[in-house]
């Protein structure tokens, strides 16, 4: 019955045999997710219970509407950092002295992110996930991680830090070094060290779980509150309740802009994570379908007093490693967290804040993917530079503005790749079919009486002037016996009106030199543009050909060295 409902794709083909795999997986997900659920809200100044609420309602919503069987959604450090920046902008716009409901603002942003997801799905904008390339995301998250690390200074030391940014809080900390609460700092550093020891020893018990258990036990035994060590405090023992944020009391323009920024980062990072896990499991990832699941998984926390979420790397990894086979594992994890909220709230309320700071600091460091940065450096120096630009943007301009810098860097990179399309003069090699780039193949020779020029890339407004300059440069250097210049347009996917004007300028120069300008392999769309622009009239419709060989046979009677028309493609 479940499998017949299209909205329950993650439970398609449900079998009772799955319980043996999904129940242990769900318990493991809850065990790993509980520490981060309590810790992550602190990044945005939200109460700990909001993280538990998000970890309950988001997986339930995704299990109903999400397309993946294995992805687990939940609080995410990077998304929380962008949320914190968006909330800071909104709160700054509130009148001085007015009371601010941070939970309501976070809920409104979660609803906004969910609405953006659904709207993007309706418009089939899953391609938006590609706007933040892998190098850009790696660099951006490295910058975000540094912001998170700086944000933990106050929680480690017990000193109230009022400065923002990267350097200012460090300077303020130095100035207030005499106020450091040493028991808090020692506890936080000890828990931080414990996390790395667990990781280094590859223990089966997750480090965050061990930190929570040990720190709660120590807090109960030694009464950390009496030492002045901050603890989580009271947590609600009941379930989250339905609440609709009061949008009319908030600056809607900033809610929309903040939601858009969170949506772009959380969806972009979520799809990268989904595709990474999909490559391991063979599960196809449809970005447009994921928009529905992520939209529902953000709307649910927005309606139950929580904040935006994304695909959780750690929870999904636990699900895969423990043998989870369906979204039942996510439902089991939600049920487990409900039980923890009801029965363990007394223990969680004495959880020390420095222990949570250690968990957050470790999570932040894990966002710095040094291996991937090295890989990017090895593959492409240019992409590495753009990764650094994205990292610098998040650090220097703040996380929210860093999103803008990251997107701008992506577009700058794309423009850089297409502004100077690859081109070259082609010739023949004796005894071989086809055409070869004269620069790459020294043994290649120009075709007698003709010039064959290839461009690999569209001719659009931002590169038309470069293409025009290149073609005119080639035209001016043609030998005196050249009868025609053949433009190989087989790799030109699109020409706009500016590109048509550039080609017309080249055609007019060639006409003045009594050289025929011929074009081969035009796409239908490009031909239509050139017809409307009058370019084809200038060069003559008879000078449009279906291939280089046809053009050369017609214009100069050229045949290749074997006596047959060449049929091979470019070695270009």
TrEMBL record:
Residues 440-555 form the STAS domain. GO terms for cellular component: membrane. Its main location: membrane. It is found in: Membrane. It is a multi-pass membrane protein. InterPro entries: SLC26A/SulP_dom, SLC26A/SulP_fam, STAS_dom, STAS_dom_sf. SUPFAM superfamilies: SpoIIaa-like. GO terms for biological process: transmembrane transport. The chain crosses the membrane at residues 52-72, 79-97, 103-123, 135-154, 179-198, 210-235, 255-274, 325-344, 350-370, 382-415. Keywords: Membrane, Transmembrane, Transmembrane helix. It comes from the Bacteria. This is SulP family inorganic anion transporter. It comes from Rhizobium vallis.
